[in-house]
Every structure is written in structure tokens, then in C-alpha cells.
Specification:
about 350 residues, mainly alpha, two-stranded antiparallel sheet, 2 strands, about 60% helix, about 0% strand
Length: about 350
């Protein structure tokens, strides 16, 4: 596992930083520039970010369960899920956080962190074919993360039930022979904690309206419902609990061969179209900026230079201005409006 980690890395409470004045100013300027040039820029942005999960019509990926349309209806009129705000609802912190374009950065941060658990990484390596279908896997993950937030309650539960069934089939052994199962409570906690840590960190650094310290606690408490639904035992309900849960896994974490390969792929996917490479590099710099100290230490990386982080914020804020609300949020609003 290498040398012991510094005590400050494993003991001090970490709270994700908010943007510097330079980053904020850069993001504001990019948003204004995007608004002025929207008719020309929007098509280029959609083309460039298509591999990141943004479709050509400007929408983030969505999935409709059981043949229902985006309004929660089955095509024959109003359904029982109409007017159901789902697990969170419009007044929740979660709805606001998941509507922000900073979610593009969060996905990369989460995957980079999740590679560090050798048993979790082995499951991805053996069962997800991330190299051959990386973008497909990314889209499916995004569909789940957004679906449980904006779907009606029954549909959100169905997503979690399906995921639990899939987990029963994800079993095997790490390269050094240790058994793994995606249904293992330890791995379920690791994925839950890293997912929502990454979303919170990206929101604090790149969102148009970053969460306050109090809202971090509210957000963690709200998404604990998702953790419970997928089988996490006693998911964290405050930011301090989530941070502590992340650190508890430290003795099991390492940058193994599979993880190093996955991170190299994430840094520069070999088949990424040329038009997508500049925005990808910007988002990757932002993802590294969102890593907690423990993650940065284990991934053997440092804080990206300020110009790169500012470029990421500019991209995120410009994309947010150009593309507007994600499709799952639009569908939820239409459902509630009747």
C-alpha cells in the first residue's frame, strides 16, 4: 500500500473550497459572452460536449422507466405519478445542485476517486468494459443519478431496485485474488460517498450558486435516501459524516495497475474526437481541482494551475448559459405543472 498517509490528510475535516475571485470573474465573463454569441456557439458546444453526455439537442441524458414519457404519463392521459414531486421536490437543495452544469465535472471526479478502491475498480474492469463503452457507461450512470432526483417516487425506487439486481451479478476477484461483490456493503458505501462527495465538491467550485456550508449538510441528508434505497447501511447524513466515511476507507485504497490505467484513459480517451479534446481537458482540470486531499495524494497529483481551473469554470458557466436546464428537470417541472 506504500508509505503511511500524513495524519493531516486522514484526520482533518475537509470542506470543498469555493472559487477564487479570478475563477468567479472568468465564469461570469464566459456566461455573458455565451449569451451574446448563443446562436453561433450553441451548435459548436453541443458537438464538442456530445461525448461528455450532452446530446446534440442540448439535453443531458435521460431515461424513462416502464414506457412512460417525460411527464410521468403512459401515453393514454394522466398517470398516477402526475404531480408527484419525487423523493426531493422543487424546494430541495438536491434539485438545485443536480440542475447545475457543474455535474459535468462531478462525474469525472467521482470516477477518478472510485478507481482507488481495488475491489470496486475490479468490478468496473471486469463487468463494465469501460474502455470499449466508456461513454455509454457514463451516460447510464448519469441517467441513474439524475433519474432518482427528478423522477416520481415509484420510478426512482424502480431505478434503485434494478441497480440492486444488477449488483447481484457483479462478482469476481481482484488481480491479487481477493473476492469482490458489487452488493458488498463496504463497496456500496464507497460508491455512494464518492459520488456525492464529487457532486458537492464540483458544485462548491463551479456552480452558478454554490452550496453554503449549511446546505452541504442538507444535501448529504437528502441524498442519504438514495443510499438507503440501493443498499447502503446507515448512509451519512451530514457533511462531517460523509467526509469521515470517505476517510474510513483509506487503509483499503491504492493506485493499482487497473486504477492507473483507468485514470490515464480518463485523462485522455484515445478515441475522443478532436473537437472534444479542448473541453475535455478543461473539465479534467476541474475534476482534479475537486479532489479532496486524500484523493489527490493517492492519485499522485496536485492542484491544477489557476488558469486551467478558471478555464473549466468558464466552460461550465458558458455551457450552462447556452444549454439551460437539463432534460430531467424540465420533464419534472412539466409533470408537476400538469
Amino acid at each position: 500500500m506504500g508509505a503511511p498517509l500524513p495524519s493531516s490528510v486522514v484526520s482533518d475535516l475537509w470542506v470543498p473550497p469555493t472559487p477564487s475571485l479570478v475563477e468567479t470573474a472568468t465564469g461570469a465573463a464566459a456566461g455573458a459572452w455565451a449569451a451574446m454569441g448563443a446562436p453561433v456557439l450553441v451548435r459548436l458546444v453541443r458537438m464538442g460536449l456530445g461525448p461528455l453526455g450532452v446530446s446534440r439537442d442540448g439535453r443531458l441524458p435521460s431515461h424513462n422507466s416502464n414506457g412512460k414519457n417525460g411527464n410521468g404519463k403512459n401515453g393514454n392521459g394522466a398517470g398516477p405519478e402526475d404531480r408527484d414531486p419525487g423523493w426531493f421536490g422543487p424546494d430541495s437543495v438536491t434539485w438545485r445542485v443536480h440542475a447545475d452544469t457543474s455535474m459535468l465535472v462531478a462525474g469525472m471526479t467521482a470516477f477518478a476517486l472510485q478507481t482507488l478502491h481495488p475491489r470496486a475498480m475490479a468490478g468496473v474492469w471486469d463487468h463494465s468494459a469501460f474502455g470499449g463503452d466508456f461513454f455509454g457507461r457514463t451516460r447510464r450512470t448519469g441517467e441513474f443519478v439524475q433519474g432518482v432526483v427528478y423522477d416520481p417516487s415509484d420510478a426512482a425506487q424502480r431505478r434503485c431496485d434494478v441497480l440492486r439486481r444488477i449488483h447481484t451479478k457483479v462478482i469476481g476477484h481482484t488481480p491479487d485474488g481477493r473476492p469482490y461483490s458489487a452488493g458488498d456493503p463496504e463497496l456500496l458505501e464507497w460508491v455512494h460517498v464518492t459520488e456525492y462527495l464529487a457532486i458537492a465538491s464540483a458544485n462548491r467550485r463551479f456552480a452558478a450558486r454554490p452550496m453554503s456550508r449549511a446546505e452541504l449538510d442538507t444535501y448529504v441528508a437528502e441524498v442519504a435516501k438514495v443510499g438507503s434505497a440501493v443498499g447502503v447501511e446507515n448512509p451519512p447524513r451530514t457533511w462531517a459524516e460523509l467526509d469521515a466515511a470517505f476517510r474510513r476507507h483509506a487503509p483499503d485504497l491504492a493506485l493499482g495497475e487497473q486504477a492507473a490505467t483507468a485514470v490515464r484513459y480518463l485523462e485522455s480517451p484515445p478515441f475522443l474526437p478532436a473537437v472534444a479534446r479542448p473541453p475535455w481537458r478543461a473539465v479534467w482540470a476541474g475534476a482534479l481541482a475537486c479532489l479532496p486531499p486524500l484523493g489527490r495524494t493517492l492519485l499522485r497529483t496536485s492542484e491544477p494551475p489557476l488558469p486551467e481551473v478558471a478555464a473549466c469554470r468558464a466552460l461550465v458557466r458558458a455551457v450552462g448559459r447556452l444549454l439551460g436546464e437539463p432534460l430531467p428537470l424540465r420533464a419534472a417541472k412539466q409533470r408537476l405543472a400538469g
